[in-house]
Amino acid sequence: MNTGSCISHFEANLARLPESVKQELEGSFRRWCERLDGSVLKEPVNRAFIESAITVCCSSLFVAESCVRDVKLWTDVVSGTALYTTIDGKNDYKQTLAAQTATNEKELMALLRVFRRRETVRIAWRDIAGWATVEETLSDLSALADACVQYALDFLHAEATAHWGLPVLSNGKEQRLVVLAMGKLGGGELNFSSDIDLIYCYAESGVLTTGKKHLDYGDFFSRLAKKLTRVLSDVTEDGFVYRVDTRLRPFGASGPWVMSFLGLENYYFTQAREWERYAMVKVRIIAGDDLGESLMVTLNRFVYRRYLDYGAFEELRRLKYKIKEKLIAEGKADNIKLGHGGIREIEFVVQSFQLIRGGTDIDLQHRQLLVVLDRLSELGLLPVNDVKILREAYLFLRKTENRLQQYRDEQVHNLPKEDNRRFLLAYSMGFDSWEKFLVVLDQYRLQVSVIFDQVFSGSEQKKSKGLSIWNGVLDDDVLKADLLDLGYQDTERLLGQVKKLRESVAVRRITTKGAEALDQLVPLVIENVRQVVNQDETLIRLLILLSKVAGRNVYFSLLIENPNALARLIKLTAASEWIAQQMAAYPVLLDELLDGRTLYEPLLKERLNADLSFILEKNKSGDIEVLMNVLRQFKQVNMLRVAAAGIMDIIPVMVISDYLTTLAEVVLQQVALSAWDLLAQKHGVPEGCQFDSSGFAIIGLGKLGGYELGYGSDLDMVFLYHSTDERALTDGLKSISVVEFYLRLGQKIIFLLNSKLLSGLLYETDMRLRPNGASGLLAVSVKGYAIYQQENAWTWEHQALVRGRFVAGDPAVGAMFTAVREKALSQSRDFDVLKREVLAMRLKMQAHFLKPNETLFDLKYGTGGIVDIEFIVQFYVLAYAESNLDLVTFTDNSRLLQLLQKKGLLSEPNAAVLQQAYCEYRIKNHQQVLQGQGVKVDVKCVEELRSQVESVWHAIMD
């Protein structure tokens, strides 16, 4: 047939189409005719081409435009023979590519893109014209992808080894990157415009050495894998070869690009989740090293268990639920892959039998779905008629999928909504109307859905909005609506946090059992958090906490199996970000949620001492790290109890500091005893000393001395010792001087308190209030301390001494300190000089701690804040203690304020203002810490108090 006859034939066929469709195709048709009329053809145009051309043009703009764009392609299509013959895709594609040459990466990318376009035009034409079966089309598309990946890898491997050298096995033989194909490509069932799921790996680890350069094999193959991915998927003027998805690799998008065979084996047999077995059913080596076959044996053992794996049913039902949830999402009903009765349901039916029975029946260990379907029938696992229906439906749906994607070479699965596109899809499928096509499609989908439900007729997983939100299988808009229904507000932020947890490295790495527990727990959390007021913030805190404890399945089970524990966790995290952070950092605290009686009942000093002694005896091992961990856990548990009791209003806020200070005293006493024992084992002790009469004391200053510790307070301390003979030696084999002993004892105490372990710090310490500050000796003799306080101490050091008291160690040394303190505080002072020095120190602190133009109020250092109250109290003690010795009796500001008022030194109104402000500031400070916030607050919430304190300050200090 000559070109004139061709054009006339085109026009006649085009005239039979609906007017609206004809108008849409006129542009492509005109360019076709121009190209055909201007072609120099060696032979007459093949009649088969003419008969199929209009159908192909209508069905695929991609084919039509490609033929116009590429002269060689057009010539091959019109008068060549490849279009009309079946090829051996596995070999023909590779041979065709092998005959072509690229000298650099740019040429490689262009060559592959042109080759892929030409071959997909050929495949699409044969498919649409009806010259190829669906099976042939899927096989050719898969073989084409295999060839492109292999060719690109060969080129890049040669380029990389030329630069870095050749990676070899332990036996000296060459090794190459192994490319595993998953999903449709792995099964040899690739659809027309599919992305390709790849996993990269290599056989053995090693190091490449080129001159002075060294490169680990892992890095070498990782670079190669990344470059291969880019060469295939980057969009250039010639388009792309394939969109490459590597997220099915171990640990997903956050995992390494490549892993050794051993690494893969360790991952899949220790950390992989159940769905990864499902994904591995179709795995296949498509490029790289023949050594990959040994890996396939390993992966086969992971996928197929050597018994009837009925335990997989629960996971399969869960996956079934996720598929069903897709139907709720807007537009999903028209998705032929994921929707009701779609391709995924057929795949799931077949692959479920493979997962459950494939380990005992190797006939089911095949990658291609249609092959396995036949075997299910032969084995009597599915009724013959069901297999017939599933086969026909599968071929019809896969054919429809290809037609959808062939239109513009786009990865689409939703049925079109425009009338013209609907007609063209139906036309390409051999129907003369959309309605007739839809009748057949819906019949197949209904039949598939019925079979699907019969296979998975087990108990349905309870549906809930929480489960939908966690699974994330619905459209974001639907999930946001569910969050709103549950009372949440910032749905965008919350949905992002849920996704962040679901896709986090921690969650990806948990075991199958852990993943199943998390799938139960998160929906419970989402639905139960709605019972608190600040539910948005609470949910975020809990999601962060769950990410921190991921991998510790016992805690997931604890919360699932103990609803009261979960309820307590929600209440506490709603009330306190600090508690949420503590539990995230130290998951052992979650055990405390089991018993509300102990959780909300902080212990008094006698019980704390008894409990700590019991715990230490139970964990006695001689290992210093065990000791430190036990002490830290003891402190964290009891601090949690204090916080929980305060939050639930079981104890008044003002006694929280008393409990926290008592806890610190108990811990310090034990730390001092442990340090003494550790030192004694090595050096012995000063002659005649035991711990109770050790000659060593810990003096508490600041908040510790003033009974005002908060949840995050550090410990201000001074170490004192007393010895009648400082030149004496200890009584051990490795004896040291008594002075050296006490210095080392102080160092050991600091070590036990400050060391950072996985269980955290015990306490931060501040030793700068010792004589001569940070440059002074860590432990000071009582005699030297007394001289310093009388002769060298600054006024601000005596201010600090107001809150000094004995907290641990030898009571006799504690009594000596009390006498030194009393003498230092009650010495005669010049009133005006004292006032100037107190004012100067206050101004110095403000300059150091307060920023100019600060809009927030600093509870501690702000004008009219806590420090102003403390300085007023300290000023009065230093000014009047000489004639009012009982002022040195107390170290806490609250009782000192009461005493100053009682003695008439501070007026009742001023004392009331300072007492009220001090209490409210401390309450506010506790609240700020529990909410994970700093000491700065909106000035409006304390403006009246601040102003009153400032007035009292000026009245006294000006």
Quick rundown:
With 958 residues, the chain is mainly alpha-helical. The chain is built from 42 helices and 14 strands. The chain has six domains: 85 residues, no CATH class; 189 residues, Beta Polymerase, domain 2; 150 residues, Four Helix Bundle (Hemerythrin (Met), subunit A), CATH 1.20.120; 89 residues, Four Helix Bundle (Hemerythrin (Met), subunit A) (Up-down Bundle); 174 residues, Beta Polymerase, domain 2, CATH 3.30.460; 131 residues, Four Helix Bundle (Hemerythrin (Met), subunit A).
Describe the protein in words:
The chain is mainly alpha-helical and 958 residues long. The protein has six domains: 1-85, no CATH class; 100-114 and 130-303, Beta Polymerase, domain 2; 312-461, Nucleotidyltransferases  domain 2 (Four Helix Bundle (Hemerythrin (Met), subunit A)), CATH 1.20.120.330; 462-523 and 535-561, Four Helix Bundle (Hemerythrin (Met), subunit A) (Up-down Bundle); 652-825, Beta Polymerase, domain 2, CATH 3.30.460.10; 827-957, Up-down Bundle (Four Helix Bundle (Hemerythrin (Met), subunit A)), CATH 1.20.120. It is 60% helix and 6% strand. The protein is built from 42 helices and 14 strands. Strands 1, 2, 5, 6 and 7 form a five-stranded mixed β-sheet that branches. Strands 8, 9, 10, 11 and 12 form a five-stranded mixed β-sheet that branches. A two-stranded antiparallel ribbon has the order 3-4. Strand 9, helix 34 and strand 10 (765-766) form a beta-alpha-beta unit. Helix 1 (3-15) runs antiparallel to helix 2 and helix 24 packs across helix 26 (553-561). The protein is elongated, with a radius of gyration of 39 Å. The model is unreliable at 458-462 (pLDDT under 50).
